[in-house]
Design brief:
- The protein is mainly beta and 500 residues long.
- Helix content is 13%, strand content 46%.
- It is built from 5 helices and 23 strands.
- Strands 1-2-3-4-5-6-7-8-9-13-14-15-20-21-22-23 form a 16-stranded antiparallel β-barrel. Strands 11-12 form a two-stranded antiparallel sheet.
- The two termini are 38 Å apart.
- The relative contact order is 0.11.
């Protein structure tokens, strides 16, 4: 480390010393090639032979013979005359120059380490933003119109988010708002945390996602389709006010997280009730394998989530739209399945996850089981599941966030571009992905007639750059309504998304 009384050494001075050393070494190599019989001072012998012999000249004008010596002359650096450093090493001491440069470099490294240590004491922050603009078209048969009403086509901003987050030493914080959701703005991730704690590792307090479900915890900007699957809306807890711990194994093959939350906080993280209305939620994941040499092109994930919750005012309700939303428009896409309200003491959420990535191919699924402790009748048992398969035509893969146990961002091998160079047009493809999903939600059980809904979704993703993406989805919703029977609804959606 640099002492306070030591003068600072600039990078330009180090660069000058390095250049002088390189010139000296080049001159020495040139002289050794020209005079291969010369010997260095430390290996000089008592030989009386001259270092070099000049060719004989004709006539009377002969040069005097060279002075007899067996020591290689030392070249003088070109800028030696400009040096005023009286303490500089002697010109014949090449090792001293090396030592001087090494010492100077070490001082610079120490100064840089000190600068980084000082910087850690000052909060560092970044800005994040996300924009999603959607357009939807709907087609319905007669039973669909009778069951849910007529759905109008529409366009909307699905998300318009701005966030500010940062770290200071072992602490972290995040403040993120969305101007497209109903709160306009609504609270998203608003929390403070401390890392590297014994046993707990990461501890957060504030408004954030509960640790439950692979699809829910994967950031929406990374999910395959425009919307998450059918089980997400009724069964996967969203952001709530609470406290949670998160940790992972040393080899990053396993993660675990758990926390306590206000079970029904609103868009601003607020909750007020005469009852407790608390929730305890936990999740554990395990990588069965992860291919390190390919940087995760091949991996297999398993996970399990659990939550026990008290409903708002001891009144439970589960409902879901098909896999389409029109931002915060009113009217929006209606709820296709709905249990209505019924009294309940508490309910539990069970989630089983599996995901397999084999190069450009990925397959992942989740199963949800929801037993409810009803207070005025037999206990219902609801369930849901989805299966998603995708293939990236341009060869990229779906990465994995090992410390979180979720999917990461797809990064194209090359960004999309198109320009003319002379008579030729040069073009980059970006990344292209096709995907299909089947999801099912059953909200009919033991006297609760919420209905059943199955969605078949196919999608096309064009990742133009790492942060710019175009998505199109076709969804066919098969609804089994307890009053009007079976119906079909066709949905076509498009989205342009940019985030950073």
């Amino acid at each position: 480390m640099l002492r306070a009384d030591e003068p600072a050494v600039s990078r330009s001075e180090v660069e000058q010393l390095r250049q002088r050393l390189e010139r000296r070494e080049a001159e020495l190599r040139e002289l050794r090639e020209r005079f291969p019989n010369a010997v260095a001072p430390e290996t000089a012998s008592a030989s009386r032979e001259p270092l070099l012999r000049l060719p004989a000249t004709t006539g009377v004008d002969r040069l005097p013979p060279p002075e007899r010596t067996n020591v290689l002359p030392t070249p003088i650096p070109a800028d030696a005359s400009k040096s005023n450093d009286a303490s500089a090493p002697t010109k014949n001491d090449d090792s001293a120059w090396r030592k001087t440069i090494s010492a100077t470099v070490e001082k610079l490294k120490a100064a840089e380490d000190k600068r980084k240590a000082d910087a850690e004491k000052v909060p560092g922050s970044r800005i994040t933003a996300e924009l999603q603009a959607d357009n939807y078209y709907f087609g319905q048969d007669a039973n669909s119109v009778a069951s849910v009403g007529e759905i109008a086509d529409g366009s909307a901003f699905r998300r318009a988010r701005v966030g500010w987050f940062g770290t200071q030493e072992v602490t972290e914080w995040r403040l993120e708002m969305d101007f497209a959701l109903q709160g306009r703005p609504s609270f998203l991730d608003v929390f403070a945390g401390i890392n590297e704690l014994p046993v707990l590792n990461k501890l957060r307090i504030g408004h954030f996602f509960e640790p439950f479900s692979l699809e829910r915890l994967t950031p929406n900007r990374y999910v395959t389709f425009m919307e998450r699957s059918l089980p997400d809306q009724p069964f996967a807890p969203a952001r709530n006010l609470g406290i949670a711990s998160q940790d992972w194994s040393e080899d990053e093959m396993m993660t675990w997280a758990y926390g306590a939350f206000a079970a029904n906080s609103n868009a601003f993280g607020d909750q007020q009730s005469d009852s407790d209305e608390t929730a305890f939620t936990a999740r554990v994941t395990r990588l069965l394998w992860y291919d390190e040499p390919s940087n995760g092109r091949y991996w297999f994930h398993l996970g399990f989530g659990y939550s026990i919750r008290e409903p708002n005012g001891n009144i439970a309700q589960f409902q879901s739209q098909p896999e389409a939303r029109l931002g915060s428009n009113t009217p929006n896409v209606p709820f296709f399945v709905n249990t209505g309200t019924f009294p309940a003491h508490y309910f539990q959420l069970y989630d089983i996850e599996a995901a397999w990535v084999n190069g450009p191919f990925s397959l992942y699924t989740e199963f949800f089981f929801v037993p409810v402790d009803r207070s005025d009748g037999p206990n219902p048992f609801f369930n849901a599941w989805y299966v998603t398969a995708s293939y990236i035509l341009t060869g990229e893969h779906r990465p994995y966030r090992r410390q979180w146990g979720t999917f990461d961002r797809v990064e194209p091998f090359e960004h999309f571009f198109r320009f003319r160079a002379g008579d030729r047009v040069k073009m980059g493809m970006g990344a292209w992905e096709i995907a299909m999903r089947v999801s099912h939600l059953d909200l009919t059980s033991n006297g609760i007639e919420g209905g059943r809904l199955t969605d078949l979704t196919v999608g096309l993703n064009w990742y133009m750059t790492t942060y710019l993406r175009f998505t199109s989805n076709y969804i066919h919703a098969f609804l089994d309504n307890p009053t009007f029977g079976n119906s079909g609804t066709d949905i076509f959606g498009m989205r342009i998304q940019y985030d950073f």
